From TrEMBL:
NCBIfam families: egtB_TIGR03440
An annotated GO BP: ergothioneine biosynthetic process
SUPFAM superfamilies to which the protein is assigned, alphabetical: C-type lectin-like, DinB/YfiT-like putative metalloenzymes
Source domain of life: Bacteria
Species this chain originates from: Bizionia echini
The entry's keywords: Iron, Oxidoreductase
Keyword Zinc-finger: no
Name of the protein described by the UniProt record: Ergothioneine biosynthesis protein EgtB
One Pfam family named in its UniProt record: FGE-sulfatase
Residue ranges annotated for the DinB-like domain, each copy included: 6-137
Length: 381
């Protein structure tokens, strides 16, 4: 696809996945880490207006002077903004106004793309397309949390469905050696994937599949959430303080485990991969199995031999810069670098990841207590 076609496809896809929503669904923020769907739609639009149209189109007039304040996320270079916990307090602008904002910016962007934009502009547009794809995945995390915390567990039409795991569980041997890590191609990647470098790895064995719900129920029933020996001190404090005894969205009803998904409140399928777990829980499960989580370098080396893409997979690696990492000047330099502290790396992709958005060098990252994303476990020994 041309970059114009990529832009059109990405923008129209967000509208398509929002079609099942009711108007009341758009503005809800039940937790600090959740953003309302309306905010995602507007923020991803503001990105193009702020970093493309306002910069590269002469005499461009913004749609609404207030929107930069309302829909900036964390770009200090772009000015003041509504604090993240307050995104759900905005009943105005209305949903209709946000959709008009998208239409306005799309018309301006398509005209700009038809006017032979510079290479610098095209690079920012490509980043903006990938940025919107990230927000489309975050939308699925957020709407699952929004609906999954309502008394009636409502459903919406969606294509988010985990596949049953293979019964052929095995471990793949990876020999020790010096391996190349990081992105080294000609396509798009984020700056945190750059800094191609070599890493020496000891030999290891990695599971050919993710941990199943059935395996995780065994961990629960064996007292995994009651045995402090399995947990980091911080993880133990986290589950004690928050009374966590199972993955997010799991509920025990008449001695049977159920879970909420966008397809409803259903019995836990023991043959599907366990998801919505924190790094703390993934680590504790690995300890219980007397194994461990892979480092992000082990995962990348092994990625050509495993089937990934159902869930983002926790690694035992802190989110740190690669050698020679450098931030772009200005606001776009805030995209990744300033978050390289107190977070853990996840690798792979998930069922909510936009097609062609994943690659084996992609470095996702979350705080170790986060559970609302589509996360899973792969073991190493």
């Amino acid at each position: 696809m041309t970059i114009k076609e990529q832009y059109q496809y990405t923008r129209s896809r967000f509208l398509e996945i929002c079609k099942p929503l009711k108007t009341e669904d758009y503005s809800v923020q039940p937790a600090v880490f959740v953003s309302p769907p309306k905010w995602h739609l507007a923020h991803s639009t503001w990105f193009f207006e702020q970093f493309v149209l306002s910069k590269f189109v002469e005499n461009y007039q913004v749609f609404n002077e207030d929107f930069a304040y309302l829909f900036n996320s964390y770009y200090n270079h772009a000015g003041k903004r509504v604090l993240r916990p307050n995104r759900g307090l905005m009943t105005r602008p209305s949903v209709d106004e946000v959709y008009k904002y998208r239409d306005f910016v799309d018309l301006k962007m398509l005209a700009f793309l038809d006017n032979n934009p510079s290479q610098n502009a095209l690079k920012v547009i490509e980043l903006g397309i990938n940025h919107e794809q990230q927000h489309q995945e975050l939308f699925y995390y957020d709407i699952t949390y929004i609906l999954g915390n309502q008394p009636t567990f409502p459903t919406i039409e969606n294509k988010i469905e985990l596949n049953t795991l293979s019964s052929q569980s095995d471990f793949i041997k990876i020999p020790e050696g010096l391996y190349e890590i990081g992105y080294n191609g000609n396509g798009f990647c984020y700056d945190n994937e750059l800094g191609n470098h070599k890493v020496f790895l000891q030999d290891f064995e990695i599971s050919n599949q993710l941990v199943s719900n059935g395996n995780y129920i065994d961990f629960i029933e064996a007292g995994g959430y009651q045995d402090f020996n399995l947990w980091h001190a911080e993880g133990w404090d986290f589950i004690q303080e928050n009374n966590i005894m199972a993955p997010l969205y799991w509920h025990k009803v008449n001695e049977t485990w159920f879970q909420y998904t966008l397809n409803g409140f259903v019995p836990v399928d023991k043959n599907k991969p366990v998801t919505h777990i924190s790094f703390y829980e993934a680590f504790a499960f690995a300890e219980w199995k007397q194994m461990r989580l892979p480092t992000e370098f082990e995962w990348e080396v092994a990625s050509k031999k495993i089937d990934f893409g159902q869930l983002w997979e926790w690694t035992n690696s802190a989110y740190l810069p690669y050698p020679n990492f450098s931030k772009a000047p200005g606001a776009l330099g805030e995209y990744n670098g300033k978050f390289m502290i107190n977070q853990m790396v996840l690798r792979g992709a998930s069922v909510a990841t936009v097609k062609n958005h994943s690659r084996n060098t992609y470095r996702n990252f979350f705080h170790p207590d986060m559970r609302w994303q589509f996360s899973g476990i792969r073991l190493v020994k």
